Amino acid sequence: MPTIHHWGMVIGGTDIAANQRPRLERHHPASGQLVASFAQGSEVDVNAAVAAAASAGDDPSWRDLTPAHRSDLIFEAARLLLAEKEDLAAIEAAETGKPLHQAVGEIEAGAQLWKYAAAVLRAQHGQFYPHLADNRAGLVWHDPVGVVALILPWNFPFIVAAERLPFILAAGCTVVAKPSEYASGSCLATAAILKRAGFPDGVYNVVTGLGPQVGAPLVDHPGVAMISFTGSTDTGRAVMAAASRTLKRVSLELGGKSPVVVFADADLDAAAAAVIHGFTHNGGQCCIATSRLLVQDTIAADFQARLRRDLASFIPVQAAANQPQWHKVVAFMDKGRSEGRTIVEGGPTNDGLTLRPAVFADLATDASVWRDEVFGPVLAMASFTDEADAIAQANDTIFGLAACVWSGDEARAMRVARRLKAGRLWINAPQDNFPELPVGGFGASGIGREAGLSGIATYCEVKSAVIRKQEKA
Question: What PROSITE patterns does this protein's entry cite (predicted)?
Fold first, then answer.
């Protein structure tokens, strides 16, 4: 039995007691057991959190820290996150329904992002132009943008935060985080860790609750300078529209319908294993899921047979994170059966909200399972004739988050990868991620984050100054 956590909120370094707010209960997606409850915040709490973040941003204890000191704090946070990875993973697994070993791996990967942010912060620098004119020099540097609203999803709450939060803090910004009402625990646990690491009160605040009561007023708040949002494309559009009213900076990572292209000369066993992992990992609840499969026509039948063989023994280990998502995926599966040929029959199991993966082929280009993000274990399959056909079909989507290419001809694989409209690519490789690599996005997939110094600069305003050299009397 997992430990049941009854969480409060964190505002200005103070834990807001759990019994002072209405509660939102969280049950394990598969077993239905109560695993957590969260305080249901309001606009009043948002206002208090933004005020605390703004005050902390102006306080010398944070404002005047050197990059080296901020780096030390971030690295200490990474150390503590790793030290508590088992507890953090237990929280994450209980709330999201993912296997414990997967959650442990995500905590470890997230801690590496914290370490990387701490390291690159030490290399932060400005620019000096000594001879702009006869008696003029110039300086360029970056200042923190201000209070950042960090709005997190329910599928990868810890790792998505780790891709952003340490870089936001490295920039010298302060934060008001709004985690998903389905998975707020790791966000709140991180607040306690940051306090122990030595971050000043108010630098990191967490307000839990529902979108209309917490997310919307946070996006609208005039004291918020920037919004970092990860979630659906439809909600991302609404966030961007709302942010435009107060001219906030916005960073969005949204949906995807990512292609995986398999040529006839590829290592087909390795490609098949990667394809299955690509659309079933995390129960298919992954924005970079490669859910559109393009296979060269000469091997299409053989590859379908491989998928049927390998998926016959596939045991679903992760449930849909919530009932609305489960119903949505089941509806997509039902639609897929009417839109195309069923290669692998998927559907509900007898284990809570768990779903068996489904594969469909012979789909029209306007079929819903081919064009729309399902966010579940559903794969749509088509064939192509040559490179040009593969590229055209792969790019025929409003999304552009990720893509994979499999080919024994490395020159061809690189040619195709360069033509694909995707921010993240894998060539003859599974979907590994590394802190050093930037993350981009095309079209409706949103605006990607950067890595390294440019990742810190994402949360900064650039400033320049002209200096007149004064002549001595």
Answer: ALDEHYDE_DEHYDR_GLU
